[in-house]
Amino acid sequence: MLNLKSEINSSKNYFVWTIGCQMNIADSQKLENVFDNMGLGKSDSVQDANVVVLNSCVVRKSAESKVESMLGTLKSVKTLFPEKIFVLMGCMVGPKTDDLKKRFPYVDVFAQPQKIEPIVDFISNKMGIDSEGCLESITVTPDVAAYVPIIHGCDKFCSFCIIPYRRGREVSRTIEDIVNEVELLTFRGVQEVTLLGQNVDSYGHDLQPGNRLEDLLSAVNDVEGIKRIRFLTSHPNDMSEQIIKAVLKLDKVCENFLLPFQAGDDDVLNSMRRGYTNLEYRNLVDKIRDYVPQATIATDIIVGFCGETEAQFQETLDLIQEIRFDKVHAAAYSPRKGTISDRMMEDSVSKEEKKERLEAIWEMQESVQVEINKKLIGQELEVLVEGKKRNKVFGRTRNDKLVFIDTDYDKTNEFVCVKIDDSTAWSLQGTISR
Ligand code: SF4
């Protein structure tokens, strides 16, 4: 079916633009696979595409502004080429689309996250393509590493977050379904999978007992051909001892955790509705490091949340200094329409203060990362080569360190042993030793 349709429709192209988290990337990959199965060709530009998809993110104001700017560009393109099909999908699209239809009348299809059926229906009708069976196709992107969504939605309703309103309540896929997908990925050469969820640790709570994240990790660990397994994003309240023990016990599960703490002060954490305290978070990190001493830990932080004082922010800085994360993703709070904080709290910290707080975090974290990475100089680390970046061969270690390799050979999708010769805050550099 694939080849036949490719021949029929090769003159019809699609272009997918994606912004946001790994979930969005995974959704776009899935849609691209369905388009491929429908016989559409992949294009690198809006100009060359018959179908243009924007996969949107509204988790932060900066992301939303980029989507709006892209939509502005599409408006002028539609005037010149009215036959092009425009699709807006992702977190900008809620259950009601009346407002979006008014603001962007030149968009043909609006689709909520993960809901790609309306897109496929519209395109197959409009273009006269038989799409039967194309939707059942799973993610088969022939890359080195692939994202595999395992649980959709989120039940947590943190006060600042739009995700539960856009991606809905938590729904886990079955272990069997996920393992099938991972097996298929291995046939396409994928060696590393990242199991995805907005709150990946709560995987399986809606399934029968015996189907929790640790059980899934164990099942994926048994898939021949898979060499590395990662999972993200974790939530401190759902990171159980069983999950930590699974990371320790299962040889393919990589020792790195993305464990957002968001703020260092207990009152701020409380108004964010995060459900844990500073002490509980620190105890959890201690537990992870007791079981898995070589674990690397990354985190997410929001600065300038409603009412956060300078003294409260200092607690965030203190936590960063104490824990010494391997990576920190920090962002300034921006109210998202319809969330609890937007409806009930005042965005009281000025833009300038938020900027200063972000800069303080980056400065502190940079010096932490310089120190951590310097200690790796001289070590030999296993690296899975992913390709070329800035004309340099690069890959990642088991615990997610970015490594640039001094080599003239294309080693993409190979495991190599790299002796680390140099480091910066953001990456390691080395030469192949074996
Ligand atoms: S855990 Fe909180 S921040 Fe994360 S997706 Fe759910 S509601 Fe949003």
Question: Would you write up a description of this structure?
Answer:
With 434 residues, the protein is of the alpha/beta class. The chain folds into three domains: 2-127, Rossmann fold, CATH 3.40.50.2300; 145-372, Alpha-Beta Horseshoe (pyruvate-formate lyase- activating enzyme); 380-432, Nucleic acid-binding proteins (OB fold (Dihydrolipoamide Acetyltransferase, E2P), Beta Barrel), CATH 2.40.50. Helix content is 37%, strand content 22%. Strands 2-1-3-4-5 form a five-stranded parallel beta sheet, with helices on both faces. It has a five-stranded mixed barrel with strand order 13-14-15-17-16. Strands 7-6-8-9 form a four-stranded mixed beta sheet. Helix 4 links the parallel strand 4 (85-90) and strand 5 (109-111). Helix 7 packs parallel to helix 8 (213-221) and helix 12 runs parallel beside helix 14 (351-374). The protein is globular and about 60 Å long. Mean pLDDT is 93; it is low at 1-10. The structure holds iron/sulfur cluster. Residues 154, 156-158, 161, 163-164, 198-199, 235 line the site of iron/sulfur cluster.
